[in-house]
Prior knowledge:
This protein has 483 residues and is mostly helical. The protein has helices at residues 2-58, 60-64, 66-82, 87-106, 114-122, 124-127, 133-166, 172-187, 197-207, 209-213, 215-232, 238-242, 245-258, 260-271, 286-289, 311-325, 328-337, 388-408, 459-463, 468-480; strands spanning 110-111, 275-276. It is built from 20 helices and two strands.
Amino acid sequence: MEENFSQRSTDEFRKAVSDPSSHLQLAFASRYTKFDEFFKELLENAEKSLHDMFTRTYGALYMQNSEVFKDLFVELKQYYTTGSVNLEEMLNDFWARLLEKMFQLVNPHYVFTEEYLDCVSRDAEQLKPFGDVPRKLKIQVTRSFVAARAFAQGLAGARDVIGKVAAVNPTDQCMKALLRMMYCPHCQGLVAVKPCNGYCLNVMKGCLANQGDLDTEWNNFIDSMLLLAERLDGPFNIESVMDPIDVKISDAIMNMQENSMQVTQKVFQGCGAPTPATNSRVSRSVSEGFNARFRLYNPEERPTTAAGTSLDRLVSDVKNKLKKAKKFWSTLPTSICSDEKMSAGSTAEDDCWNGKSKSRYLEAVTGNGLTNQINNPDVEVDITKPDLIIRRQIMILREMKMRMKSAYNGNDITFVDIADGSGEESGSGCEGDLCHIEPPIVRMPPPEVNTNVQSGNSIASVCGASKLALFLSCLALVLHRQW
């Protein structure tokens, strides 16, 4: 019977924590899925649009050199998926390869060796054969992809942090306090009496002490996500970069065509005269292949492209969810105790269970977090032993916050992944100042424990009952009640 009481109180507590946590976790998980789907489909659509337009406009000349463009999108997808691509180097390589292809097309009467083409590529920055398009596109692509990937990672990271924190098991002392709060009134015949609101708050703050310490870094992380969302909705909008990327690359090609004579002259001066073609391999004039331009892109056109939505709509939705997620961990005890199943509420201060009897609860409500529990009158909390799983989630939140802030400035940073594993740690499991807690080592005495009873979780020890008759009356009530 005692085990049944203890198990039921623990299960009710876990459900009270799990329900709001699962709701929040689902919100982040669904937004991550939507963003991930959107970004990937956006890339697929951009690649298909470029292929279709270049096929119609440039025909065989594009088809013969299409691997240059295919590789561009392969690398962009690789960066978004793994982050293992240096975007600036990759884009420089793309323009260098395109220059080599184009230079051969505009000079069909010459044969170019690999060494000669390498020379052409090395001088690309001074030549500026594509005008200012490569420089502008590099800035736009780099900062928008960095922001998009970081934002998606932030959503996925928040989802995972919530799941791990919500799954942390209550301590033995917490389970004692829960049993005392939820079922000791039954032993006095007070089956319908709910715990006092202040009493419930102290028990929950003691049981959720480590979760309360998460709140500061959680809020900092949420703020950094909101800042990055503003960037995504403005200058770092990946949709406004990828939708017209085919037009921008085509403009660069047109610049090369229009300036081909000047570019060729400068290359011949810097790299030397190439070998003339000895056979009659004179290609069709490049002007025949590159004389068409695409329509100008209208920035007001915001089509519903990827995943049946647009980036601004996705960002607006996530911003609303992020704002509601702030202070989640610090307000969790209040949220739980606001449920009529858990406490009598603040309006029934004299008609509630205070841990000893049906009367007003006179103790002060403690603050949130581990160190504040030194004065918790209802839950014995060892403030010198922080939960290692939650400390690790604090580290992860700090890391993600740094990633968001870096992405906000258009920069990418890479961290070594922190694997949580099964929760087993080597050493303390804490780094830096995350576990640097130096409170006075004070243990609160266990509340009203009968030392004559061996079982720490027994009804008599938890509720302070000292007479067999009281226990038997409690047992009779329990057997009589229909669970």
